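Morning - adenosine-5'-diphosphate inputs below, output right after.
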Amino acid sequence: MHMRILIALGGNALISENAERTYEAQFNVARQAMAKLNGILQDNEVVVTHGNGPQVGDILLRNEQPADGVPAMPLHACGSMSQGLISEIISNAYNSVTKTGKQIVSVFSRSLVSADDPAFASPSKPIGRFYKENEARGLAEKYHWSLVNSKNGTWRRVVPSPMPLRILEENAVLELLRNKFIPISAGGGGTPVIERNGMIEGVEAVIDKDLASSVLAKGIGCQKLIILTDVKGAYRNYGTPESELIGRITVSEAEELSRRGEFWSGSMGPKVRASVLFIRGGGKEAVIASLDDAAEAVSGRSGTVIVPD
Ligand code: ADP
Ligand code: MG
């Protein structure tokens, strides 16, 4: 059955598990991902979104050692650079798998957030590398960073992760879908922007890619939201001997499991939250599944399938 679907690709679709982050390694992983997805891409209206954690982390590191006279770029601009980089990798990977299929096209995307979002008052998302205490203090003073104590007494920069309200490019994405293109959009959650005094400005924040995917899927009327990651789905009692894959559940059941704290914040938590928001907003089905099971996930036969009550 032909459907309009949003497929969100997690880090594992782009970075191999042994964490090699060279361009070639990322390209090879992406090529395998595109080979798995090609049938779905040709047979449906699909928009592809992706994460950017490792890539933007590396761009930030390069940013910290600027050549003389080369200014460091703000975080939102680093996110934009990662959209371009990952778009190249996905596009080349796709066309290495098919030369005759639909055309893939990347849409640089911005996520509109509210300047009053409470997340700005309490930065929570760790980004970049781990610093020793004295190093961290120096950087915090120089760049006005917020820091958190991380593992083994190291420190990490934390930034706000506000709620995306709308992908500004959603109408263009919709037109591309209607014209049989495969748009890549909301990469890395989209570049965060606020509207202030009639101006649109980038802000120092990151947007969760699953929440941005949910907002885009809703905005362009997708029937399905498919979140592909490195586990079979969402589990009950994850990380314990009693862990058990959650199959088909209603949105109310998903909310109840979230309330019980079954899903960790920053990983599975936002995927379930994104799914719940999508269904509450009128979506038909949200699936959290492994990239390896993509075809079954689209037909609701693998992973965690969240449906209306
Ligand atoms: P992605 O890069 O695909 O967005 P994440 O690393 O953010 O992936 O999220 C997937 C991870 O979520 C899994 O590898 C797993 O470690 C973690 N996780 C946390 N809670 C759960 C849970 N209840 N069920 C399954 N996975 C969970
Ligand atoms: Mg991840």
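Note: The chain has a mean pLDDT of 95.

O.
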